[in-house]
## 1
Amino acid sequence: MNRSKYLPLTETTYLVLLALIEPGHGYVIMQKVEELSDGNVRIAAGTMYGAIDNLMKLKWIQSVPSSDARRKVYQITDAGLSILREETNRLRSMLAIADNLNL
Amino acid sequence: MSKERIVKHKIFIVDIEKEQDFIDSYIEKGYKLKYVNNNTFKYIFEKCDDEFIPKIRIDYRTFKKKDEYTEYISMYEDAGWKQIKGSKNSGIHYFEQITPDTTDDLFSDKQSYSELYKRMFAYSISCLSFYAIMIFILHNQFNTTIFTNPKNLFFTPGLWDATGIKFAAGFMFELPFVILRNVAPFLLFLSSILFIACAFKCKKKEKEYNTML
């Protein structure tokens, strides 16, 4: 099986993609990631801006129309969803290895 | 009563973390950064009795479109960072924490730091290319001996055959005159060296962070 050259994803990328299953602007994504991770992961502003920039270039997310001129709203694309599923499967098989070893 | 002020001049080349540490050291002693100018390398700190003295963090980015820049500033503000110095094309941006809840840093992973130095490297290279083009265009207008054969800039007879103290004395004596005769090429030469040094340092920092990934 040929795995995407983009895997594994960084923690930041993975969580941002998860957060963008529902549309949101930069700060909303930051809050969502904090909430999804039970406050364990706080993405800082510069990292968030860079992550959006990278994900837009990869076309894993897209901007969707919004009423706020100062804040762009983003959402995951089909390509983004498929990479997210691929990464989730990879993580599952990693966990399975650990479980098999009774870790 | 006016508050106690400290004025400092300090040059930081490329090293953003060192500059942040420098500003932090005054914040720890109870001073707030009041003014910064990265072109004159000037910092003014003022004694501050507030319980919360905002930290200063530095980012490097340029923007092609106005709305990209607006979005950038809005996102940082939403996340608790107020811009205190910088503009669309300034490259360097200084941000101040709005509340104590704001994250301690602008970046929360190593990749972001690696990308930061990558952007600065690209900037150094673009400056260097600009100077290279200038030199190419101007090479008929003025003396480019400094790049092709710097020894010929010195007129002292037999200087390059002399050794030891005689050479050192002759060289140091004539050097100011050489510089005065060739101000423009010298400035161009110095800037080129500076940008090469910057580019190397950026690349080094980028690699340092990449190995931590």
Note: The CA atoms of residues 34 and 42 of chain A lie 5 Å apart.
## 2
Amino acid sequence: MAREPLINIILFALFPVTAGVAMVLDEPFIITLMTKAAILALAGVGLNIALGLGGLVSFGHAAFFGIGGYAMGVLASHAQSYTPIMETPILIEGTKSMLVIWGVAVVAAALAALLIGVLSLRTTGVYFIMITLAFGQMLYYFAISWPAYGGEDGLSIYIRNDFPGLNTLDPIQFFAIAFTVLAAVLFIAGRLAKAPFGLALSAARQNPERVETVGVAPFRLRLVAFIISGAVTGLAGALFADLNRFVSPTMFSWQTSGEIMIFVILGGVGRLFGPVAGAALFILLEHVLGGLSDFWHVYLGLLLLLVVLFARGGLIGTLAGKETAHD
Amino acid sequence: MTEPVLEVSHLKKRFGALKATDDVSLTLMPNEIHALIGPNGAGKSTLIKQIAGGLRSDSGTVEFAGRDVTALGTVARARAGLGRTFQISSLAMEYTVLQNTVLGALGRDGHVMRFFQPVMKNRKLVDQGMAALTRVGMADLATKRTADLSHGQRRLLEVAVALTLEPKVFLMDEPMAGLGASGSKRLTGFLHTLRAEAPILLVEHDMDAVFALADRISVLVYGQIIATGSADEIRRDPLVREAYLGAEDAA
Amino acid sequence: MSLILLIEQVLNGIQFGVMLFLMAAGLTLIFGVMGLINLAHGSLYMVGAFAAAAVAGWTGSFALALIAALAAAAAAGALVELLVIRRLYDRDHLDQVLATFALILIFSEGTRYIFGSFPLFLDIPAALSGPVLLPGGILYPLYRLVIIAVGLLVAAGLFVLIAKTRIGIQIRAGEADREMIAALGVDISKLYTLVFALGAALAGLAGALVGAIQSVQVGMGEPVLILAFVVIVIGGIGSIKGALIGALLVGLTDTLGGALLPTLFATFMEPSSANTIGSAVASMAIYILMAGVLLFKPSGLFGAT
């Protein structure tokens, strides 16, 4: 059991160390890869709140990832073309401020999670999986068919958005931003899991009847968890769009939902650092296997199959021994 | 005249052609242990669910501390002060024993939507959880994983969680099952003292415990209460002897 | 919109719905009998389409192409069931989702490896191409009518299979109680492989039939798979009847929504934005339909509560 915190620390330190070494060696591509891993890990940390803690198998988290991405795309594209988003009844202008964009992304994703959650959480099991999947697809097709923001082609942003006091176009500085956000959210998610809310939410996953019997409604717990989860994934979406300076309906696609889920599973469900390990492994595989073969998804598929069938604790679970994480 | 804490009137529940409960009425008075017995399939489990809120009745009412709770669900009835234990243990199995009672204390406390302070470092809740464990004699098992407990220990933990709720009424579904003779005897002693805090509606197969504890006993057969009375009255009731013992012989 | 155009759209909707039914029937059967959620069902659809396109390319025979599609999809289904799926019956839905998602990755990339990234084309056979004149002076493609007929025949066949045959009785018993069926002396693992292969064959048939009106390419299965999910969520998981009605509802809603909503919106707003908003709403119409159904029936129209 004591091995898991140690693994977490090493794993976590690997991010800035790799990025730092890459900076010294003047390998900006590696820094960008680490930034991508950190952002995808953040998306996974978001999903893990619903999936790992709450047992809510959402196959539609691309919805929130995409909303975060489009929050960035819409605000920044209006700012770069100097056209307001709307003039009546009140004037709303675009912005290039990362902090404002994050705020909008989080709020928009949380609102979407509230709506999707209220409808989806009436169901359980397979219905829930399929419904969240369907809502993700609904937004995907909406993004494709709505021409104002690029439709199928997506939106390009020429210059990365601003962060006070930093040059966001410098890879290492943008990495620092993404990594700091990841660290902060991991800290909050860790507290959340141990807080009264986390205790009750996880109990509702293990045994909803028990939670009802002590006078707490599982639905409310799950809805709040779903909203927090969606908001975090939305924040990751905004960062991801900023990393690429591009947003397209692909962010909403069901493959994106599947990949976010893969981060969580490869690393280990319900483990705080599971998505971090999973995203890092995913990026590593994409880079190494992708370099070896154009068809690296076959190997990713085989690996995922093996993990699901034979190594159910994921990467961290396998490294730390079979015991699940507990206080 | 004292008012009943729990008053069940004319409850009915039908599953297709089967009348699981058929016009069941009973009361639970302050400080009373009222036992509900009956052969298997008599409708006890259905009745418990109807009282606890897990199953909507076709007709009839459930009044609780003078308030009609018929329209309320499980959560609202628990918040109104109904402490239930399950026939088949219903606990958070991945949690430690203490976490389960802290969950109960948290439910009683009501402030679930707290997102930052570690709950297992909350003095008040942990103390309440420990106190409940101590009362059922499980304090030394506090850090054990619930899934690793024996069946009897799980029954006791069910009771401990119910204690943390500080309910106005206990609704206990076979708490003695799986305890063994000595454990059963100890729990009998404990329930005897517990009635001073809140009355208990006790569903139990252990007849020694029932006859030792119950102020009143109701006998449920084929969804109907065929007799209610003291232990002696029930023992002597010819209808009970025929229906109940007859049914058990047949089984 | 003229009446003739409307009737055409209704027929298109029914044709689309019938195709969805072939997909949804397999999904719902597999879920009903084995309790398995199978994301790789779309891959079997793709396997069918590719097998048909390849065989049609070699032999020029559409009939042989259809047979190849059925055989290839059924064989792929049986193989996958034996190697992977049967390890998942006792797992939770999360494991099933992930493992079958992994299968999609393997199937898609494997197909890309064999056939390349360029779409293949499957021609409608000459005997079935061209329009027919329907009563009322409507010219409608014969092939699409044939698809409707094939779909309805399969639906009828499935109902007979499940209601009247020995296998159907075993399937229904398997839905109700797995231990009971094992106790009756039925070889349950054989039954499961058979049901899975049957579902796969239906998906392969759908892929081949649709392959002749669309291009055959990697990734063609997943959009259909997700629509099939919407269908069985609306119809109620496990119900063949629900799958049929859900499929027709979804097919009609999608087709008529795309055709009618822009026109409808144009009655109260300017044409250009009516077109934009109308088609955007139309693209979401089936999901709105699904949300509406679930609001009133959380386990679908014909689902067990």
Note: Chain B has a mean pLDDT of 90.
## 3
Amino acid sequence: MIALLLRDLRLAVRAGGGFGLGLAFFLIVIVLVPFGVGPDKTVLEPIAPGILWVAALLSCLLSLDRIFALDFEDGSLALLATSPLPLEAASVTKAVAHWLTTGLPLTIAAPALGVLLHMKTDAYAYLTLSLALGTPALSIIGAFGAALTVGLKRGGLLLSLLVLPLYVPTLVFGAEAVRRGAEGMDATTPFVMLAGITFGAFALLPFASGAALRVNLK
Amino acid sequence: MSIWEYANPKKFMATTTPIIPWVLGIALAAMFVGLVWGLLFTPDAENFGASVKILFVHVPTALMAINAWFMMFVASLIWLIRRHHVSALAAKAAAPIGATMTLIALITGAIWGQPTWGTWWQWEPRLTSFLILFLFYLGYMALWSAIEDNDTAADLTSVLCLVGSIFALLSRYAVRFWSNGLHQDSTFSADKETHIDPSFWYPSVIAMLGFGLLFLALVLIRTNTEIRLRRADALEARQRRSA
């Protein structure tokens, strides 16, 4: 598992493109929003947490199809399936690798981009914590979507259609936690729910991803 | 004699083909009676005027929108566990009908909301959940049409349906947490006294029955069509091999 994780990380960093692309996309979306809604601080301040969450979610989506597609094409996924490591564990590992290369950098970069949107000072800690808790769920749900569409020629668009509705609960609780934090309200409930979704998804979805991969490799 | 006998496509078709006209006939009759009674022969409700009458369409379609997904959930489970092809095809057949029902419920809801709530759309829990349910239907149908191999498609869509059901439920509660509603609480329930006048209740129940049977008839017709399509494909493949 660790060898697979290291291999995926090395590939993501060295192959170029995938690693920085998500972050750059995140930056561009955040820069575009003020052009769309106007530079007024009173407009930007209340929508900043939601915009940051939606942008993070979309940048996560960008690199999802790479989770399994490259390995499927060159046959290493079939090799993985015959190895003693079950496909369920492989899909967890790949989701973790995806998170380390997209979710984690997004979480670290988000507060800096919050400045661009005039986010309230109180909200920064909440933003970082909610993204740190929520983005792993985005990766593992995305890995399930990627497993479903891995055999398809043009799976990218379909993948977004399948995965985005699944992202709704994560987005609701993640953005709600930051909004409550920004307004000085108690944010325990959304944080607990967010953590529940992440852990629940990590516990259950790998089985669905494993089943989907096995069907696609048949 | 067990229900699994009907998993044989031939037996399924032989049994359902004579039933379909009856189911469809009763469905149309019930819909006609329920809707005509509801639309023309009920009094205008206090405070709402004639706008209340759209609910005779709205409530049954909303009911069927959810039940169609539930039926797909059960059919997907049966496919994954017992691998009966009819079951997978029935789930496939139900999806577009469920999506249509969801869309009708959303549109009639918007038309009802305009005069009574003063808005076409409100980001309100039940409306939002239905919109999300509609997105789930779209994703499910898109996955079916994207995969060429029939068994692979059936497997993957079934897995998606199971996972989707969990997330649809989760979204429903998330959305309820996120925003408070305008929607009235459920008026129909099995255990509580109904808050509804009998003059409205009878036509709505008949309309609901009609829509339920309509759904059943459409699913049966579409499942039979899918079985025939599958056979036609098999014949074509055989012809190509022998040529």
Note: The mean pLDDT of chain A is 87.
